[in-house]
């Protein structure tokens, strides 16, 4: 059983990207924290970060068998209509995460075109947001009895 962690443009350089906005945790740190959260359930993490929308879409299409997904679309939150269509066809619950509190920032970040499709949205809690999303998916997906 796999959980998909999908990060969009400019999220591979976390830790070195505007740390005052996005914090000092690297993507590797986040992957380790999420993997640790889900390991008790026996889930494996598939983590993919891409700079381009098309590659993110391929990744979604290739991972329909994942149990759920955590998606930080980066700036595609504002204009990624093809990514939105890909997520609309993703069969399992997914949670949108933003490290920064987008509501406290520029007004162009105030609307995500993806959020209406998400099972939930976690904003402004930094790297912890990914862990909370993993926890939410653990709760949403019943453990096999
Ligand atoms: C972000 C917020 C987006 O507005 C921005 O374009 C990003 C990062 C976040 O995690 O806070 O790339 O998704």
Automatic annotation (TrEMBL):
Gene3D superfamilies: Dehydroquinase, class II (3.40.50.9100). The keyword Mitochondrion does not apply. One of its GO terms (molecular function) is 3-dehydroquinate dehydratase activity. GO terms for biological process: amino acid biosynthetic process; aromatic amino acid family biosynthetic process; chorismate biosynthetic process; quinate catabolic process. It catalyses: 3-dehydroquinate = 3-dehydroshikimate + H2O. PROSITE patterns: DEHYDROQUINASE_II. Substrate binds at residues 72, 85, 99-100, 109. Belongs to the type-II 3-dehydroquinase family. Homododecamer. This is 3-dehydroquinate dehydratase. It comes from Frankia casuarinae (strain DSM 45818 / CECT 9043 / HFP020203 / CcI3).
């Amino acid at each position: 059983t796999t959980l998909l962690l999908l990060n969009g443009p400019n999220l591979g350089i976390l830790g070195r990207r505007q740390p005052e906005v996005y914090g000092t945790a690297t993507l590797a740190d986040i992957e380790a924290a999420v993997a640790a959260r889900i390991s008790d359930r026996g889930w494996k993490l598939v983590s993919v970060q891409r700079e381009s929308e098309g590659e993110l879409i391929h990744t979604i299409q290739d991972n329909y068998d994942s149990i759920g997904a955590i998606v930080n679309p980066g700036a595609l939150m504002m204009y990624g209509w093809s990514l939105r269509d890909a997520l609309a066809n993703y069969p399992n619950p997914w949670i949108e995460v933003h490290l920064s509190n987008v509501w406290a920032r520029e007004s162009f970040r105030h609307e995500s075109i993806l959020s209406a499709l998400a099972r939930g949205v976690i904003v402004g809690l930094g790297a912890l947001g990914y862990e909370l999303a993993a926890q939410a998916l653990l709760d949403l997906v019943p453990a096999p009895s």
